[in-house]
Amino acid sequence: MHVGMTAIFQNPEGNDGNPDLDAGVYTVEYAMADKAEALGFDSLWGVEHHFNGYAMCPDPLKFLTYFAGRTQKIKLGTMVVVAPWHDAVRVAEDSSVLDHVSGGRNIIGIGRGVAKIEFDGFRLDMNQSRQLLIENIQATQMGLEKGYIEFQGEVVKQGYVQIRPKPARSFADRIYASAASPESYPIFGKLGVGLLFIPGQRTWDQIAGDLDAYRNAFREAHPGKSPPMPIFAGWTFVDEDAARAEELGKKYINGYIESALGHYQTTGEHMKGIKGYEYYAAAADRMKAAGVTRDQQSSAFVNNHIWGTPEQCVEKIKAVREQLGACAFLAIFNYAGMPVEEAKRNQALFAAKVLPKLKAYMPDLDVGARAVLEPAE
């Protein structure tokens, strides 16, 4: 199967904007990303976040364009470009540039965004986010497939403009959308894009149970065509010692989850009444009614991620892949203030002991795959 790695640029101690701390995070993340191809990973991914230390990569396409010049064959993906914060023309232009300079190695992940701090910082109304997401995906698809955008939607209105450099290759199998709320699944199916799952409030069982809605919507909107197999990500901690893997894996993954809960504030009262975010408000009410504490919430999220010995990590990743019918896994190795040497050890051990087994497990499975393949003997 396809296995990638993602740099998230997290500085949980750096919300005061200390430039030395931020610079240290960048030094480590670029050094680890620079090893991705040599270590055997199939792809390198960057995230987009703004305005605090939760994640400090405001432009993943720019990050990946640097690595287009540092690599030869590794694929380069966004996890994700947050569409409501961008002009579709610029997303299409920047994606076309990256695809040209990388020789066709760009994978575009697109998402909606959830954090109020980020929408407020960009002076945007969260009530418009779902429509902005849909129309920006449609406009970006037009730009990358036709070489121009001419679009008149409810919120996105763009007169005719060419995308230059003109895209040289189709992106039909290379656009994925980040799916969090179940309501988004049929929307993405109609749009004809793949699904990218970044673990959050929902378990893999719940996600797998809702995938039929996406697949049915895709087939109805695109007769005769099978939907792409999903991609899933996981915060990863691997160690040869099972006890150490469990102790530190839970510690650091829980630390990341605590930072995510603080950044997104999905249980906050502000979520109520915002159009398109009804799922988050209802989920918060259900947890409150059930008496679920923040510690319990964090603990449940830990099980969505990947920690253990190399053998345990292989089996966990394979199990999720089979649940989702997925084609690719993306590992995150450095997060929650993990010491630099620990993060590098984590990446190196995964590459040495986990990566080869996953790639041998389903060797023909790659991003963009549509057929359901059987595991190799």
Short key terms for the protein model shown above:
377 residues, alpha/beta, TIM Barrel, eight-stranded parallel beta barrel, 13 helices
How does this structure look, described?
Helix 3 packs parallel to helix 4 and helix 9 crosses helix 11. The C terminus is likely disordered. The strands form two sheets. This protein has an eight-stranded parallel beta barrel, surrounded by eight helices. With 377 residues, the chain is α/β, with parallel strands linked by helices. The protein has 13 helices and twelve strands. It has one domain: TIM Barrel. Helix 7 links the parallel strand 8 and strand 9. Helix content is 46%, strand content 15%.
In short:
The chain has 377 residues and is of the alpha/beta class.
**β-strand amount:** 15-25%
Q: What is the helix tally? A: 13
User: For the terminal residues, how far apart are their CA atoms?
Assistant: 14 Å
CATH superfamily: Luciferase-like domain
Strand order of the largest sheet: 1-2-3-5-8-9-10-12
| Overall SS class | alpha/beta
Give the number of domains: 1
Shape estimate: globular
CATH class: Alpha Beta
